[in-house]
What does this fold into?
Amino acid sequence: MTGLWIVLAAVGVAVAFGGYRYVTDGRAKRERPSRQRQLRADQLGADLGTGATLVQFSAPVCGPCRTTHRLLETLTADDPTVIHVDIDAETRLDLVSEFGITRTPTVLLLDRDGTVRHRIVGPARRPDVLDALGQVTGSAAA
Amino acid sequence: MSVAQPASAVSLVDPRSPRFGAAITSVVLIATLLLGPTWGSPLLVLQTLAFAAGSLLGLPFQPYGWVFRTWVRPRLGPPAELEDARPPRFAQTVGLVFALAGLAGAILTLPVLFYVAVGFALVAALLNAVFDFCLGCELYLLVARLRGTAPAPAQEGRAAS
It folds into this structure.
């Protein structure tokens, strides 16, 4: 009898958690102004884009990181002002803790000054990336 | 530009195979839980061996993967694309840890340990089967952070371990 309750509980947890993630994953969330930090080019070890930079945190055991990598490469391919940097999170635990990265893939969208403006946790969704990029590059020009 | 993902030859897997395996795993674990620590143990032993084969030897040795390749895949046709085998292999390792904990619970007559460990393994298997959930994405960084809690490296590049 105990086993039946455990099975029901496990199914409930899996459906609730998986459903929540299915709905919320990959959305671009604006970083609150009070929490916005700067990621400098020397910290990153790569040049920042003159319009925006997408910093992706990946892991070798992360399948969706590949999908996100391909999407961001496609989206940045024809815009030289936007740069995509893919980091193996384990090699940069300093950035992981400084920017509160909890899982992969996580993408930080930096404006041209390197300030984190948006954060995408989970496999990035194309419209969300485009929308966030539009906001950052649009406002950065002002 | 890509800093991650070394270009070394990685083994690939049909992404439908681990998902199919997770569905079988879910059924086996549900049966294990319904049968309880005593009568469910033989099933749990089989599942532990399946996890161990996938984790320690690699996905080609995972019995459910073999079933998929032999019986299911010929009916489905080739996959749209192949996937890196490391994420599903990591998931097998996580499953192995939970299954071993569950077996320990059965052997040491600690039913709470049995139910909790197998219950967690079932949650993970269901998430994988139903939502194509990536367990490695959640746990890998957590483990890496726990291991590498040393102060941030002064030099740019590899973190000191």
Notes: The longest strand of chain B covers residues 12-13. Chain B has six helices and two strands. The beta strands of chain B are 12-13, 83-84. Chain B touches chain A through 48 residues (CB under 8 Å).
